[in-house]
Amino acid sequence: MARRAxxxxxxxxxxxxxxxxxxxxxxxxxxxxxxxxxxxxxxFRTQGGVHVHEDKLTVTSPVLMWIKxxxxxxxxxxxxxxxFQDVKAISGTGQQHGSxxxxxxxxxxxxxxxxxxxxxxxxxSSFVISDSPIWMDSSTTAECRHLxxxxxxxxxxxxxxxxRAYERFTGNQIARIYKQKPEVYAQTExxxxxxxxxASLFLGDYAAIDYSDGSGMNLLKIWEKTWAETCxxxxxxxxxxxxxxxxxxxxxxxxxxxxxxxxxGFDPDCKIVTFTGDxxxxxxxxxxxxxxxxxxxxxxxxxxxxxxxxxxxxxxxxFCNPVQTDTYMALLCYKNGSLMRERIRDECALGSWDEFSxxxxxxxxxxxxxxxxxxxxxEITPQAVGVHRFNAENQKVPHFPKEVEVRALxxxxxxxxxxxxxxxxxxxxxxxxxxxxxxxxxxxxxxxVLSDVFGAPVYTIDTANSAxxxxxxxxxxxxxxNSGLSFSDVMKLxxxxxxxxxxxPRAAQVYQPVLKRYSELERKVISDAFETP
Length: 533
Ligand code: ADP
Ligand code: XUL
Prior knowledge:
Layout: E1 7-13, E2 17-24, E3 29-36, H1 37-40, E4 51-52, E5 59-62, H2 63-79, E6 87-94, E7 99-103, H3 106-111, H4 119-122, E8 131-133, H5 141-150, H6 154-161, H7 170-180, H8 182-186, E9 188-193, H9 194-203, H10 211-214, E10 220-221, E11 226-227, H11 229-235, H12 239-243, E12 252-255, H13 258-264, E13 271-273, E14 276-277, H14 278-285, E15 293-297, E16 301-307, E17 317-320, E18 328-334, H15 338-348, H16 353-361, E19 371-375, E20 386-390, E21 396-397, H17 402-423, E22 434-437, H18 444-454, E23 458-460, H19 466-480, H20 487-490, E24 498-501, H21 507-531
Parallel strand pairs: 1-6, 6-13, 6-14, 15-22, 22-23
Antiparallel strand pairs: 1-2, 2-3, 4-5, 5-8, 7-9, 10-11, 12-13, 15-16, 16-18, 17-18, 19-20, 20-21, 23-24
Helix pairs in contact: 5-6, 5-7, 5-11, 7-11, 14-19, 15-17, 16-17, 16-18, 17-18
The structure holds adenosine-5'-diphosphate and D-xylulose.
């Protein structure tokens, strides 16, 4: 009998949808599908997968919606004849920071799931909180200040957990729930992240939180990889017990629950590899290697960096690396991405990306000393707003000629990224690769500026469904991680990224002094932002 082709599956519980990607042993995608929360599960009345509460600060998603979406996607897979029996391993991911509150006795229910019924019916009474706080929630400013004070300040918290206190980070979310509803907290048997909650549904038991997603809680000591006792105590009593120990991201948690074996025909030996957060999962999906930077140029701009020796700062986040436990990843988010570029394109390049590119081609690296900061909306990194232009003498000027403006925008956006990456401990090395993705990564001239500012080659990659694909890859790796094979060993079969731009040899010399000036002027722009009434 012919050998059946092994499959590895990744599930992504993202904000708006549940996605699934299956690959074969050659790492080729053989199946993908999704369930869109608003469209396919209208009974939960979400918009973009979430409920924004009246105070505008509280943002939640119904936990049963996530479970029902899993029932639905597995049924869809069954109806198209997906061969569950060939799946060797499953891993997955969830939006970062969101939390799920299991009721006392829920472990028992998870251990004894009756395969005749869908999960959302079996687990409908298993949660003390039916609306889970998610990453878009910003209602916990008081809890953030309390946590930072408890450890002696924002930088101390960053040095310990990888990030200063952020409203969406789970420790602060838990603290608010404890403060507002202590009785609900007392009835909680276990607190999961969206990722470990989703893993629990496959495992039929509480799944551990992994180091990488655990780093998005303001609770995990990223160096020792254990919970920080002072942080736990500052958030809620007895919290360590409700979280359970954190584990490496590539650990096999166990075999799939008999529920799925009977109901869908999974092989009883199919392994569940620890689930992680969506950004760590994307790092795996983009197959970042040691020293790489991924730059996503979309509605907002995001940077993932593979860092060996991070220096956590007041901006950006350091997470434990999801594919290699002894290293780290950094995450930097910028709100002024494509929309900012579009505005300058409309004002200075006749609304055309071709004209925008032409302006970049006809101006020179370093922009003759002209540089600018372009923040139409309040920026995250750094916290500043407005448009600020400086000439070569560091004098503030109200306007630039159109093509100078275009170059100042692009150089400014990329210099900021390089400077913030270096502040987090990133070092550009001869083997550094920049992997560019997102809408603007099709623009050759933009990629050339990126390459010149960083002094490194830029490659482009297709990142459609990178988080679920990354988890299918992680499922493959999880099965062999114990025998010492690294993630990149396993990834050798995957398609290589395409070289899109190489740095001009003179660029390094040009940008060295400009980067220094940009960094100094940034401080001025930030302090101006705070002085503005
Ligand atoms: P999202 O973050 O919403 O997924 P995308 O990654 O798809 O967004 O990026 C969309 C953006 O890509 C658009 O808003 C547009 O500004 C930008 N874009 C599209 N084509 C180009 C181009 N040729 N040059 C620069 N930017 C582009
Ligand atoms: C990262 C963050 C979001 C969520 C949802 O810190 O808040 O990217 O992970 O995608």
